[in-house]
Amino acid sequence: MKKMPDLLLRIVVGFAVFGIFLSAIFLGKEIGFMILFGAALLLGLKEFYDLIDMGGFKPQRLTGYLLGISLFLGNGMMTFFGHSEKYLLFPLLCLFLILPIELYRNRQDPFTNIAHGFLGLIYVAVPVTLLINIVHPNDEIGYNPLFFAAFLQLILASDSGAYLAGSAFGKHKLFERISPKKSWEGAIGGLLMSMAFAIGFSFFIDFLTIWEWIGLCVVTVVAGIYGDLVESLLKRNVGAKDSGKLLPGHGGALDRLDSIILATPFAFVYLKLFL
């Protein structure tokens, strides 16, 4: 059987993932969202810890998985279903269990293992958990998958605009040491394309004004660019091309989440200030 060309494979996988995403957040609503992004959180943590393993360290994987998913579930129970903030007390308390658990592991570099355990939660679990507060910005707006899809589209538009502008005009390197192909021209092109989408969204998602949409666009795109660069730094540090092989032609979960991971905390704070 002839192997599917790489570009066609990327397109097919991309459409499949897009269909699953839309079905989960629009048809599955809060439960679908929790299942989809709970799985993404666990996969992202696994790939992060795999990268750390490649660097020669041994973080507490099981502890990280349990703490990450309990933080995600606790925020979901509180935000989506109106339960008490007590659901967040257990994961917050258990964060400190990483310290005594390391006593019983008898591993080399315990201090570094502890630090990497915390870093996985900060880098992956916290941003994915805050996505709950993007799809449900406040109780008045409620669960709004259309706004969430628009938020993600700002990042996708930036990626597409950066590729097109960078390919056509890219001469000045953005951060050559980390990502030699990225250029300032590409970054500006990505911001302009994303801004055009933000202006369009302001006409039918009107709880943000046009200027607030533009502000959200700038915050999201700039943070997303750095998110992409940070993941490239982590992979380059251990000599990995992709974070994983989950999605043929697209790499791993972290490769798809890289821009979202850093954009989400900044977007979360921005929305808290303006809503």
How would you summarize this macromolecular structure in one to three sentences?
By secondary structure, the protein is mainly α. It has one domain.
Question: Any key phrases for this structure?
Answer:
single chain, about 280 residues, mainly alpha, two-stranded antiparallel sheet, 11 helices, 2 strands, about 75% helix, globular
What does this structure look like?
- Helix 2 runs antiparallel to helix 6 (110-130) and helix 6 packs across helix 11.
- Helix content is 73%, strand content 3%.
- It starts with 5 loop residues before the first helix and ends with a helix.
- It has one domain (6-274).
- The protein is globular, with a radius of gyration of 19 Å.
- With 275 residues, it is mainly alpha-helical.
- It has a two-stranded antiparallel ribbon.
Q: Give the overall average pLDDT.
A: 88
Number of helices: 11
> By helix and strand content, what is the structural category?
mainly alpha
Biggest sheet strand order reads: 1-2
- List the quaternary state of the chains: single chain
General shape:
globular
**N- and C-termini, Cα separation:** 55 Å
What Rg is obtained from the alpha carbons, in whole angstroms?
19 Å
Number of strands: 2
Number of domains: 1
Strand percent estimate: under 5%
Task: Detail the poorly predicted runs.
Answer: none
What is the chain-wise order of helices and strands? HHHHHHHHEEHHH
Largest sheet: 2 strands, antiparallel
Question: How helical, in percent, are the residues?
Answer: over 70%
